[in-house]
Amino acid sequence: MVSESALDAFDEIYDREFEYVWRNLGRFGVPEHELPDATHEVFLVLHRRWNELDRSRPIRPWLFGVARRVAADARAKRRELPSDEEMVAPSDPMVAQRNLLWRSLAALDDAKRSIVILHDLEGYTGAEIAEQLDIPVNTVHSRLRLARADLLAEVNRRRGGR
Is the CB of residue 98 less than 8 Å from the CB of residue 55? Predict the structure, then answer.
């Protein structure tokens, strides 16, 4: 049986980190209509693994890793994102820009995508990313440089070569 204090702690993490998980799942290429289920899956994993967590460490890197795996599983099941032509264009320009970014990020390989999300979108330092992903700092910076170039090329391609 789960204690009431554990449930309160879980609820607090859920409330605080829900948008973070949702946002990163979208950045990893989970289509908007699948985001509720994918977000739910991340928190189900948290609930299942609750007793294994090291609560002295920050939760976000752990949630990021779970979100990355959930998104990869969703991509493997789906095998392919809908084409740009199949997407309904949102009337809100901010949503359109977000969708362009998320779809462009989805075109990057997982290693590059993770680093550009963590660094450019979530604000982690190279050293923090290296520790989180257990890779050398120089690898982080190299992948970041390559990821930015690939991301820019993908955005330009999706905009029609502008």
Answer: no
Classify domain 1-80 at the CATH topology level: Rna Polymerase Sigma Factor; Chain: A (1.10.1740)
pLDDT along the chain (162 residues), means of 10: 74 96 94 93 95 90 96 78 53 86 91 95 96 95 97 93 65
10 Å Cβ neighbour count for 95? 12
- Cβ atoms within 10 Å of 82's Cβ, excluding its own: 11
In this prediction the pTM is 0.81
- CA dist 129 and 127 (Å) reads 5
State the CATH architecture for 90-162: Orthogonal Bundle (1.10)
